[in-house]
Amino acid sequence: MALPLSLKPGSTRGVGTLHDPRIHGLHVILPLGEGQNRTKLQKYIEEHHLAYNIDFEEGDLETFICRRPDGLAFDKEKKSCVFLEYTRAMDTNEDWAPKKEQEKDDRYNTHLGFINQFSRREKSGWKATQINYTTGVRGSLHTNQFLIRLETLGVKNKNTREAIRNRTVHKTLYMSNMILKFFSIALNSRIEWTIQSLHTEITNKSMEKYNLYLQATGPP
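^ that's the sequence the OP posted. Answer follows.
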C-alpha cells in the first residue's frame, strides 16, 4: 500500500521519506566496507539478542538484517527515524485494525530495540520509532488516529492531512476494485469481453509496465 505523505513539495518540511527498497535493510547502519562492517553489525546483533534473552537461531541473523519496513522517515534536527508500515487489511471483524497493527509492531519490535540500543552505545542521539497506517480493504479507517499519526510524522497542515486521508481511502477502494476486475477476468472464459470493462490505464499501461499477460485457460 502506498501512502501519499505529501501533496506538493514542502508540505512535510523537516521530514525526509525514503522508499528505495535496496537500502532499507539494517546493513546501512554501518557503511559498506569489504565485509568488515557487516561482520561488526552481525556481532552487535548477536550481542543484543543474548543480552535481552531473545530467541536467536543461526538462520535468523540474515533474516533480521534483511527485513525492511515499507518506508522510512527521518528528521535530522530531532534525530528521529520512523519505521513506516502501510497496510490494507480485511476489515470484516470489529477488531481488525488493532490485530493487524499488533502484527506489525511485533514484526519490528526487536529491530527498533536494537537500533535504539546501538544508538545509545554509539552516543549518536538518534531514536527509532514506528508508525502504522492501516486501512480496511473496504475503505474503512480510524480517522482521528490516522490524522494524529500524520501530524506526528510532520504533516502539520490540517487541510493537507485531510486530503491525504481522502486520497488514501480513494486509492484503497480503487485497488480493491481493480483486484476484483482482474479476478473476474481469471474466471471468465471469454477474456476479450471482461477486459473491455477495465480502465484503459490499467490494461495498457500497468500491464505493460509489469510485463503482465492475459491468457484464457478455460474453453473458448
